[in-house]
Amino acid sequence: MSESCLNVLICRNYKGDVDMSEIDHFMPLLMQHEEEGLLCPVMSHGNVHFMWIKHSNLYLVATTNKNSNASLVYAFLYKLVEVFTEYFKELEEESIQDNFVVVYELLDELMDFGFPQTTDSKILQEYITQEGAKLEVAKSKVPTTVTNAVSWRSEGIKYKKNEVFIDVIESINVLVNANGSVMSSDIVGSIKLKTMLSGMPELRLGLNDRVLFGLTGRDKGKTVMMEDVKFHQCVRLSRFESDRTISFIPPDGESELMSYRINTHVKPLIWIESVIEKFSHSRVEIMVKGGKEFLMRAHFGLPSVENEEAESKPPITVKFEIPYFTVSGIQVRYMKIIEKSGYQALPWVRYITQSGDYQLRTNV
Asked: Which of 99, 98, 20 is nearest to 61 (CA)?
C-alpha cells in the first residue's frame, strides 16, 4: 500500500481464504489506532488479522484469519523489502509502479500457497530479470540451485585467485547519565563474509567462544560469551549445537554469516563533557570537551523570547569508528577451507568497532 494515496499498489492472494476486499479496512484501522495512541504491529478486523511493516512511503501488509506464526510472517515481510531493494535499488511507490511485472514474478517465486520458498535474491536474479526477453527464456530452465540441497550457492563457480574476506563488526550501545555512570550498555556484533572461492568448498570458522573452550577444556586466554546468536541458513545448526563448530558451505560473494549480542558492562570509549551557560534571553554558550584533546565552544544568538516551560535536555549522541579493534575481544582463531580440488585459499580478517546507540546525558 502507498502512504501518499492510501491505495493498494500490489496484492497477491496465495490461499484464497481471506477476501481481497479485507485490505480496504487496513488504513482506516491504522489511522484510528494512531489517533488513539494504540498503534501496534498486529491489528484485527473481525476474524482477519493484519500484520504490517512500513518502509519508506509504503506499507507491506500480510492478512490471515488463522493463528499464524507471526515471527515467520514478519521475517518474510522484511525479506520482501530486502529482495525488492536488491532489484530496484530503492523500494518506494514509484519503483513498484515501474516494475509491476517483475514484482508479481517475485511474489510468485518467494511464496507458494502461503509458505516461503526461494528467498535468496542472488538465486532469484538468475532466472527473474528486469528484461522481458530474458525473463521468457529463463522460465524454461530453473537454476539447479532452486532444487539443490545447497540452494544459496550455484555450482561451477570458478576464480583465478581464491580468497575469503572476513569482517568482524561490533556496534556499542551505551547510555551514560549526567553523573557519568553507565546506565545501560551492550555490544551487537556481526560477522560478514566476502567469498571468492571456486567449486563447492566447506568452511570451518573458529572463534574464541567461551562455551567451546569450556567443552574442550582449553579455558585459556580471552574468551567471549555470545548471546542471541543468529546464523545464515548455510550454517549447519546441528553441528554448532553439538560441538560449537561453525561449519558451512558459503554463498558466493557478500553475505552476513552470523550476528550476536554480548550483554556486558562497557566502559565508554569516548567521553564527552558539556557545559551550557545562559547569559541572557538571547545568548547561549555551549562548551563541549572530548577527553583531553578536543574542545569546542559555540555561541548562539537567539530571539529575545522568554519561555517559562521547562526546556528539554537532549543527550549528546556520538558517532565514531575504530579499525583493527573489537571492544569484546572476539577473535577469529582459524578459518579452514576444504574443497575436493585441494586448492589453497588465503583468509583475510578485519576488525571494526563503531558506535551504535551511543548517548551521554547532559547535566544542565
From this structure: 20
Q: Given a cut of 70, is residue 50 above it in pLDDT?
A: yes
Residues found in the chain: 364
Sheet arrangement for strand 332-338: 246-248, 202-207, 332-338
How far apart (Å, rounded) are the C-alpha atoms in residues 127 and 134?
A: 8
pLDDT at position 139, please?
Answer: 46
Residue 268 near residue 182 (C-beta atoms within 8 A): yes
Contact 287, 275 (CB under 8 A): yes
Are 304 and 279 in contact, with CB atoms under 8 Å apart? no
At 144, list the grid cell: 539447479
Give the model confidence (pLDDT) of 154-175 as tens digits: 888 999 999 999 999 999 999 9
C-alpha cell at 281: 534571553
Query: With contact defined as beta carbons under 8 Å apart, do 159 and 195 qualify?
Result: no
Bridge partners for 45 per DSSP:
48
* Beta-bridge partners for 348: 165
pTM: 0.65
- Best CA proximity match to 268, nearest among 177, 192, 142, 165: 177
Greatest pairwise CA separation for the chain in angstroms: 78
pLDDT band at 56 (very low <50, low <70, confident <90, very high): confident
d(Cα 143, Cα 186) in Å, to the nearest integer?
42
The per-residue pLDDT for range 335-357, each reduced to its tens digit, is 999 999 989 898 999 999 999 99
- pLDDT above 90 for 324: yes
Burial class (CB in 10 A: 0-12, 13-18, 19+), 132: exposed
